[in-house]
Amino acid sequence: GKPRKLVIFLNPIGGKQNARSIYQKTAGPLFELAGILCEVLVSERHRHFTDLVAAFDFSSVDGMVIFGGDGSVCEILNALMRKTYGQEVKDPKPIDIPMAVIPTGTGNGFSEGLYGVQNELTAILHVINGTILPQPLMSVHSGGSLLSMSCCVIAYGLFSDVMYHTDKQRWLKKLRYAVVPLWVMLWKKQRLFNARVTYKVRYRTHCLF
């Protein structure tokens, strides 16, 4: 059903840097009209979401809404899983707190996968409607240690290197997704390593609006 209280995680510098404006002019008034209370937490620095998640009491809200892109979703998801199950997260279970994302980042693939479009108003209306959808939760471990978790895309090796270097060139905005992968593939010396990859399938889900 419709949520009564939400915590808002807002990334003001992602994408077109319009997350704050979209919340103030569109999402906030609509949430208020729907009778939904909101507590807004704004990221002020690199990895600030991790600290905000660690300090927040999620039992006080019905769900969380992220105004950002795939990077914000990944950071908050990893912080929440580690807060709930410890640093290694050896046997992840579904998270009790539903998560939604409003596409205000540079890369909004996760939001598009959820709603079918990269449209802020569509995502906001889905949140107000309160529909819960199960989503797969993925993790990568190496040497017995957890590297990362994701509910969007996860990789190890070349693709991870491409994304790492792409994130380093954020000044290129969306252009970096075309330029940096081409540079990595054609001109940068590739790292070589021996690896044995195994995977386990667990029917665990992460619930989102």
TrEMBL record:
InterPro entries, alphabetized: ATP-NAD_kinase_N, Diacylglycerol_kinase_cat_dom, Lipid_Phosphate_FormReg, NAD/diacylglycerol_kinase_sf
Which GO CC terms are listed, alphabetically? membrane
SUPFAM superfamilies with a match to the protein in the record: NAD kinase/diacylglycerol kinase-like (SSF111331)
Its domain of life reads: Eukaryota
Pfam families, alphabetized: DAGK_cat
Q: Which GO terms describe its biological process?
A: ceramide metabolic process
Question: Where does the record place the DAGKc domain?
Answer: 1-144
List the PROSITE patterns hit by this protein, alphabetically.
Answer: DAGK
Q: Name one GO molecular function term.
A: ceramide kinase activity
Protein name per its UniProtKB record = DAGKc domain-containing protein
